[in-house]
Write a structure and sequence with these properties.
The chain is 50% helix and 12% strand. It is an alpha/beta fold. The protein binds adenosine-5'-triphosphate (ATP) and magnesium ion.
Length: 434
């Protein structure tokens, strides 16, 4: 028996990998539309692609699956994960070193250099590389297409690097060179990722990676079931889907912890109770990533009942760069009086810089959570509470509300100062993938 569970534990580790992107296509769930769009842009429109989206939304996993598909279609794909100090010169020397000389127009496949395993890097001068020089080199390629994937683009801080990439895209596009770039990174919007690129907007296709749908998240869990042999009952999957809120990272993390919780009890069937344990563990992990200052503020907000509603706002803000506004509040409170009351509380929190602050942008006046790691923590607390309450209480008689409506709570009393009056719900536990 113990052998059997030891084996299940090992398989589970390979089935859900919250700290690693997906590299095995069998484990990749959903995203058919996104992949189709990406492939069409590259193949049919021949544009360069910029993929941006929140942390953990699945950019790197997408890029890996895209890479495999492109390799099968006989592209040469070079994947580069950018670092803080990445330079244009270093990256494109490495790219050139991955392209065999036999794809250079000037070398027959039987030429000595090509046969000896030479690469395009052998043709580069020793001085610093310019975008023009790199484009000249790629222009001489034949018999294949080259895809250069620059992942974690946001990590690289050098404005010169970004300027050079923009110039390279311009060069490649103007000369119809058969090399395309795929750039992926965390950003709220495109301009943040590539501030020098407006001049080449025509030559790029920008894609914001969306959060996953409930059925895609279910697939993610089902894929893991197949690989691990551990199964999840229906309520367990619903619980994971609800808390994950479209994030493959959260779904993978919770599935992993829940699977282990079941195995600890000598079961290979995961129940909602196991997911509850997983949620508590995730909360403990996430809480550890929040500053002491914010932890204290969260605990105070719990006493007023404000924490739960802020948690629901955090759920909306998670995929919106930490931002929410009055429209999110209106969606939460069907009653105008309650909405107005809550907006007042939010304004007060923002004025006192408690967890959130006022944020004006092109969408108007909104709010932002001051600390990124607070968001998943608050959201998971709120989602857990709501899911468990829904399970206990019979469903309301009125027609089904939206998920967000269901989370609506009674209006938080008033000012934070009065917070001590109400007993806190759950004791504070944990929050985010920083
Ligand atoms: N389509 C998918 N199917 C199954 N699991 C996925 C999928 N996409 C992402 N994941 C899981 O979600 C987690 C985050 O994915 P990934 O690392 O690709 O995101 P990312 O957007 O590149 O994150 P970061 O912003 O931190 O670089 C990983 O655990 C990965 O295994
Ligand atoms: Mg990534």
């Amino acid at each position: 028996m113990s052998d059997r569970f030891a084996a299940a534990r090992v398989k589970l580790r390979g089935a859900f990998t919250p700290s690693q992107p997906i590299t095995d296509r069998r484990m990749f769930a959903g995203r058919i539309d996104v992949l189709t769009t990406l492939i069409r842009s590259l193949e049919d429109q021949r544009v360069h692609v910029i993929m941006y989206g929140e942390r953990g939304i699945g950019k790197t996993s997408l890029v890996h699956v895209l890479t495999q598909a492109a390799q099968e279609a006989r592209y040469i794909v070079v994947y580069v994960s950018c670092g803080a100090g990445s330079s244009f010169d270093e990256i494109f020397r490495a790219v050139a070193a991955d392209v065999p000389l036999l794809f250079h127009r000037g070398f027959a496949p039987t030429a000595n250099e090509a046969e000896k395993g030479g690469t395009l890097a052998d043709l580069l001068p020793s001085g610093p590389l310019s975008p023009r020089l790199v484009a000249d080199l790629f222009a001489k390629m034949t018999g294949t297409r080259l895809l250069v994937v620059l992942d974690e683009f946001d990590v690289c801080e050098s404005p010169e690097f970004r300027r050079n990439i923009a110039e390279l895209i311009k060069n490649l596009s103007d000369r119809a060179i058969r090399t395309q770039l795929v750039i992926a990174g965390v950003a709220a919007d495109l301009t943040e990722l590539v501030e020098h690129i407006p001049s080449i907007r025509r030559n790029i296709f920008a894609l914001q990676v969306p959060k996953m749908t409930a059925s895609e998240i279910s697939h993610l869990v089902e894929n893991g079931e197949e690989v691990s042999g551990v199964t999840f009952d229906r309520t367990a999957i619903e619980f994971i889907v609800f808390v994950a809120n479209g994030s493959p990272y959260l779904a993978s993390l919770l599935s992993h912890h829940a699977g282990l919780a079941a195995i600890d009890k000598s079961r290979t069937k995961v129940t909602a109770e196991d997911v509850s344990i997983a949620v508590d563990q995730a909360l403990a992990e996430f809480r550890g990533r929040i500053s002491k200052h914010s932890q204290i503020q969260i605990d105070q907000a719990a006493k007023s009942g404000v924490r739960h509603v802020l948690g629901v706002m955090a759920g909306a803000a998670l995929f919106n760069n930490g931002r929410f506004d009055g429209r999110d509040v209106d969606a939460l409170y069907p009653s105008a009086a309650n909405a107005a009351n809550f907006k007042g509380t939010i304004d007060e929190l923002a004025a006192r810089q408690i967890l959130i602050e006022v944020h004006e942008d092109e969408y108007g006046r909104g709010y932002r959570f001051a600390e990124e790691s607070v968001l998943p923590y608050l959201w998971i607390l709120a989602a857990q509470k709501r899911f468990l309450e829904n399970r206990k209480a019979p469903p309301p008689e009125k027609p089904a509300d939206t998920a967000v409506d269901k989370i609506a709570v009674q209006a938080p009393a008033t000012a934070l100062d009065k917070t001590t009056a109400r007993p806190s719900g759950a004791s504070s536990r944990a929050a985010d993938r920083s």
